[in-house]
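Extended Data, panel c. Modelled sequence:
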Amino acid sequence: MRDIVDITSDNLPSLESISHLVQDDTAGAISTFSGLTRDTFQGKRVVQLDYEAYVPMATKVLHELIKEARDQWDLKHVAVYHRIGTVPVGQVSVVIAVSSAHRREGLRATEYLIDHLKDRCPIWKKEVYEDGSVWKGTCEGCRLNKHKHDSN
């Protein structure tokens, strides 16, 4: 079993190279998720995303999430990459890759990892629009769109 966690300000490796890292001859599936910066959000034009993280704690939380996923599903290898700093439109900010004997385990684990990363990991995102910006992160109110933290 191999667990890879990387939080970096560099461009992320390609999906193909990350998938290769989790490949295992006993695995019948590699499930992946790639999160990209899109050009619009709720009708606003997005210029870029700016990510900040408390890297030591974020790394610890990601390893905890991987352990939780392993406790629920039979996984071979797991890789979670997250970019910090400025991520322009069209570029990748997060990649998750999971190898497993069967697709169902890998797909469920991948969904679990991205959902809980967004809920619990101390990585914060500032969406920069043409007309201002909004910080988002692990704040429950932000995640449920109950309020927002503006930073113009």
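The helical segments are 15-22, 55-72, 103-120, 140-143. This feature is highlighted in the accompanying rendering.
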